[in-house]
Amino acid sequence: MPQMAPISWLSLFLLFSMIFIMFNVMNYFIYLPSTPKSKNMKKISTNSMNWKW
């Protein structure tokens, strides 16, 4: 039974690793989270604190 050379295993590992990395990168950058679109959006009130030093 013929055996594969080590360089062959290395090239297969690199090929599948690159495919896996590209798949994850594409999924990360294609995903668009849905933003809530309501007309009555409440503004976040910020209390400014004036310190009397």
TrEMBL record:
Ribosomal protein recorded as keyword: no
Gene Ontology molecular functions: proton transmembrane transporter activity
Subcellular location: Mitochondrion membrane
One Gene Ontology term from the biological process aspect of the record: proton motive force-driven ATP synthesis
GO annotations of cellular component type: mitochondrial membrane; proton-transporting ATP synthase complex
Main localisation: mitochondrion
Signal in keyword set: no
Membrane topology per record: Single-pass membrane protein
UniProt xrefs under InterPro entries: ATP8_metazoa
Transmembrane segments: 12-32
Keywords: CF(0), Hydrogen ion transport, Ion transport, Membrane, Mitochondrion, Transmembrane, Transmembrane helix, Transport
SUBUNIT field: F-type ATPases have 2 components, CF(1) - the catalytic core - and CF(0) - the membrane proton channel.
Family from the record: Belongs to the ATPase protein 8 family.
Function: Mitochondrial membrane ATP synthase (F(1)F(0) ATP synthase or Complex V) produces ATP from ADP in the presence of a proton gradient across the membrane which is generated by electron transport complexes of the respiratory chain. F-type ATPases consist of two structural domains, F(1) - containing the extramembraneous catalytic core and F(0) - containing the membrane proton channel, linked together by a central stalk and a peripheral stalk. During catalysis, ATP synthesis in the catalytic domain of F(1) is coupled via a rotary mechanism of the central stalk subunits to proton translocation.
Name assigned to this protein: ATP synthase complex subunit 8
